[in-house]
Amino acid sequence: MLNRRFLAVPLCLLVLALTAGAQWTNKKKEKPRDPTIRSLQGIVSLPDESPAEGAVVKLKNLKTLQVRSYITQKDGKYHFQNLSTNIDYEVNSDYKEFSSPTRTLSVFDSRFEAIINLKLEPGKEKKDETKSN
Q1: Dist CA 29 CA 37 (whole Å)
Q2: CATH superfamily of domain region 37-116
Q3: Whole-Å CA distances, 55 to 7, 49, 119
Q4: How do residues 17-58 score in pLDDT, each as one tens digit?
Q5: Is the pTM of this model over 0.85?
Q6: In the chain, what are the domain boundaries?
């Protein structure tokens, strides 16, 4: 009986040591960041500096002219992912009678997580396309 207890303690310690070692080897290895992919994020704010909930942020790919859009939540934040570092993008925002100036995310901007905050300004009146005779 004493021999079994004497052997059980080292056996338990051995099992604990092996499982602890397995945890060290099971850690996920981080993949290196793809240098051709980046993201763009920012905050859309009203003229009084408050966040614009429900603003439409438009991102235009200047190579393909494809437009992606994002509708901001209460915090006014927007986020676009999987953008090529080899393409210029234009970003702007509209909200009710307000609009932001168009900003450019250039290929020369080397940030992988670019931040462009957009400030809304009173919009310009839209021109009436129909002319009266």
Answers
A1: 20
A2: Immunoglobulins (2.60.40.10)
A3: 70, 14, 11
A4: 656 555 555 566 777 888 899 999 999 999 999 999 999 999
A5: no
A6: 37-116
Which position has the token pair 């909200």? 95
Residue linked to tokens 């494809």: 66
Contact 58, 69 (CB under 8 A): yes
Q: How many alpha carbons lie under 13 Å from residue 40 in its C-beta half-sphere?
A: 29
pLDDT band at 79 (very low <50, low <70, confident <90, very high): very high
